[in-house]
Amino acid sequence: MYAAVLHQTGDATLDANSEVQSTSFGPGRVRVKLRASSLCHSDLSAMSGVLGHPAPFVPGHEGAGDVVEVGAGVTSVKPGDRVASTSLRGSYAELARAPVDKLVPVPDEVETSVAAAVLLQGLTAHYLATSTYPLAQGSWCLIHAAAGGVGLLLCQIAKARGARVIGTVSTDEKAALATQAGAEHVVLYTRQDFVSEARRLTGGHGVSVVYDSVGKTTFEGSLNSLAPRGMLVLFGQSSGPVPPVDPQVLNTKGSLYLTRPTLTHYTASSSELLTRARDLFAWMEAGKLQVRIDRTYPLADAAAAHRALEGRETKGKVLLLP
């Protein structure tokens, strides 16, 4: 099969025309012929060497396509079924494999590319808004990077749950996207102080929850935007890791809560994964959740796709089409 291979960490140059041997797999595994592979920031981290993944390797872990082979003991899917997963190791390729309990059936009404685009970011937005801090009618929330892939989905889900949404973005174009997705107020952090705006909009009280995927550059401001006993949900670090924190700071700023969740712990069982995925697909089929695919690239242009993602040029999901 053909795949995009990274030969040296720290180098975004991918050899996208590499012919590699498809690896064998054992019981409980499924091989998928990929129709679309999704990019995410964790791929950038892996390629930079931060995650300690030894090169050479094929990046990627999320996508959607058709089942072509199943291992011993697999009965829930069969060849020809359309599936999506966030556990398709080495998904920058024509073929990838995953444990069967990490696969999600794709309904007939949902296009394969859309399933690939929504799954990881949609599941993330789902658990953030329904489990980590369950948003309720009238809850004030602040969503950083509101025009990003997770941000656009999270704005929609938050609005549907009756929350009052403040989104932060960098440009007028992104502000329009966040507004369309349900943000009641949008702060252009390049021109405005989001802490002051969050305080002003909430009558000085602060927001109940901040969903922060940016990390280093927003962390302190996120804490300062919270109401007493509010929660900072740090689920990413696109600007870099947050420095060590003295827990006493949470006390002095209002008995705050700080959590660092990850999707793995919110889809720990197959039943939880399927429940969240079914909600996403049902909302999409009902027209309640719109998925934005910002751009697509052929597999041969994987390096260009990564440069666009790393340069924060994108406003939605980026896909590779094997």
Q: How many individual domains? A: 2
CATH homology superfamily name of the largest domain: Medium-chain alcohol dehydrogenases, catalytic domain
- Integer average pLDDT: 92
Order of helices and strands: EEEHEEEEHEHEHEHEHEHEHHEHE
Provide tags for this entry:
single chain; 322 residues; alpha/beta; Quinone Oxidoreductase, Chain A, domain 1; Rossmann fold; 2 domains; six-stranded parallel sheet; 10 helices; 15 strands; globular
Summarize the structure.
With 322 residues, this protein is an alpha/beta fold. Helices cover 30% and strands 26% of the residues.
Task: Give an account of the 3D structure.
The protein is of the alpha/beta class. The protein has two domains: 149 residues, Quinone Oxidoreductase, Chain A, domain 1 (Alpha-Beta Complex), CATH 3.90.180.10; 124 residues, NAD(P)-binding Rossmann-like Domain (Rossmann fold), CATH 3.40.50. It is 30% helix and 26% strand. It has ten helices and 15 strands. Strands 3, 4, 5, 6, 7, 14 and 15 form a seven-stranded mixed beta sheet that branches. Strands 10-9-8-11-12-13 form a six-stranded parallel beta sheet, with helices on both faces. Strands 1-2 form a two-stranded antiparallel sheet. Strand 9, helix 4 and strand 10 form a beta-alpha-beta unit. The radius of gyration is 20 Å and the shape is globular. The chain starts with a strand and ends with a strand. 45% of the residues are buried.
